[in-house]
Amino acid sequence: MALRRRAFLTLSGGLAAAAGLTACGSNTGRPEPGGSAPATGGAKPTLSQWYHEYGEDGVEEAVKRYAAAYDQATVTVQWNPGDYEKLVSSALLTDKAPDVFEYANGPTLDMIKAGQALDLTTMLGDAKPQFTQSVLDAASWEGKVYSIPQTVDMQMLFYRKSVLDQAGVAPPATIDDLIKAVPAVQSKDMGGFYAGTDGGIGVLSSMFIWAAGQEQISADKTTIGFDNAEGHAAFAKFAELAAADGYVPSASGDWSTASPFVNGETAMQWSGLWILPEVTDALGDDFGVLPFPSVGAAGRPAVPFGAFGACVNAKGKNVEAATEFVRWLWVDQEDYQLEFSNAFGTHIPAKTALVPKADKVASGAGAEAAKFVAEFGHANDKLWTPAIQQAITAAVTNVVQKKADPKSEIAEVAATAKADIKRLNG
Fold first, then answer.
1. 370: Cβ–Cβ under 8 A, 6 or more apart, which residues?
2. Which of 120, 111, 161, 202 is nearest to 401 (CA)?
3. Which residues are the signal sequence here (predicted)?
4. How confident is the model at residue 423 (pLDDT cuts 50, 70, 90)?
5. Domains of the chain, with CATH numbers?
6. 221: which of 8, 142, 187, 358 is 20 to 30 A away, CA to CA?
7. Which of 18-27, 244-253, 386-395 has the lowest mean pLDDT?
């Protein structure tokens, strides 16, 4: 089944793993894609551009139309179903790699360190302030920009206004507010809060880190950034929330679907921007949206986001031509950028000035979502590896479901992180 743009936001505990695995060979079972030929004489260069397979109707036709409109090169677009990340990682080790490829929140650290992704900072130039800063930061490493964001998806908390009003409960601004609200708004027919069939462990683990005012990775880039009193207390609060009367353990759909919320199974649900049209159709204006509430004295509101971005193969045959094409499409052509975000599903344009022009997010809850990304947005650190994600999932499961000590569980995550980060930096 084709993936929607937001699909990588629902994987690996809510966000795609930001640090890629070492590629495991180029034999994918798919036909080998053709590489680009260098320009000869006065002929236009030929460029290959790769996308993952989007689920929304019309996206493939649109990006092929964009490519055909470019008159400085012949651009061929390849649509890639299946395991796109593995396909790109493998291809970049060969001479069959595309000149331009998209990747979630920019290229992986492996790609950057291998010199496979071109530094696009200079190319971006004066256009850099046009992009939402948090989104551009996710596409960067050590101050250099390695991809140009195309469009943005995000997660947030949905709540029923009438249910909270009837219970005399204000929209929760802190985790303690949320813990108190969950039992207060529940009824015999409706739960208080829902975050997925696993009790929210996958999708909320990093939220508790960020909302506690901490970072996934330490400032010195050697271990996790939440093995401290604030991090320990944050996961203790997660256990307290999950134990609250009215916390919904299962529902008609997972956290990423609208059904639990619109069917009245829960008064509050953690989900994504993509369910906004369905929620609006079902509830009209009887709902509101919030970032995840702050956790602890050092806390802050937080939301996660994901943005596929256009990368240039630094080892390609036509690097300069590929760079100029990326500039033309994802920096200069704002009509195409607006269409890409607004015509196929509900997404936030990567450029802040385009948000008011995208009617699905120009006002109401959509505009709030765009504001949340700009003010409170986070994406996985490029050193947040699959091994670290697995370790935090196991640790939080023990804390939430088995009442384990957060300090000792997070210490185990720190040990895993130190070893994996050392491997990456080796």
1. 348, 355, 361
2. 202
3. 1-18
4. confident
5. 5-150+307-332 (3.40.190.10), 155-302+383-425 (3.40.190.10)
6. 8
7. 18-27
CA 315 to mean position of chain CA atoms:
27
* Cα 22 to the center of its chain, rounded Å: 21
Work out whether strand 46-52 and strand 100-104 pair parallel, antiparallel, or are unpaired.
parallel
State the pLDDT at residue 268.
98
| Exposed e or buried b per residue across 279-310, where buried means at least 16 C-beta atoms within 10 angstroms of its C-beta | bbebbeeebbbbbbbbbbeebbbbbbbbbbbb
Core vs surface per residue 126-139: b (16+ CB within 10 A) or e: eeeeebbebbbbbb
Reported as a single tens digit per residue, the pLDDT across 356-375 is: 999 999 999 999 999 999 99
- Nearest Cα to Cα of residue 194 among 250, 147, 135, 139: 250
Other CB atoms within 10 Å distance of the CB of residue 335:
11
Backbone angles phi, psi at 392, to 5 degrees: -70, -35
Beta strands in 81-219 (DSSP E): 100-104, 140-141, 144-145, 148-149, 151-159, 191-194, 215-217
Q: Which pLDDT band holds residue 9 (cuts at 50, 70, 90)?
A: low
Q: Cα dist. 387→84, 201, 415 in Å?
A: 20, 16, 11
First vs last C-alpha separation in the chain: 38
Contact 383, 19 (CB under 8 A): yes
User: Residue 25: is its pLDDT beyond 50?
Assistant: no
Measured between alpha carbons, how far is 252 from 248 in angstroms, rounded to an integer? 11
Helices (H) and strands (E) in the chain, counts: 16, 17
| 3-class state of residue 152 by DSSP | strand
Look at residues 77, 85, 84, 88 and name the one whose alpha carbon lies nearest to residue 47: 77
Of the listed ranges 3-17, 270-284, 387-401, the one predicted with least confidence: 3-17
Task: Kindly write down the DSSP assignment for every residue of 213-276, as one continuous string.
Answer: T-EEE-TTSSSEE--SHHHHHHHHHHHHHHTSTTEE---SS-TTSSHHHHTTSEEEEEEEGGGH
10 Å CB burial of residue 104 (0-12, 13-18, 19+) is: buried
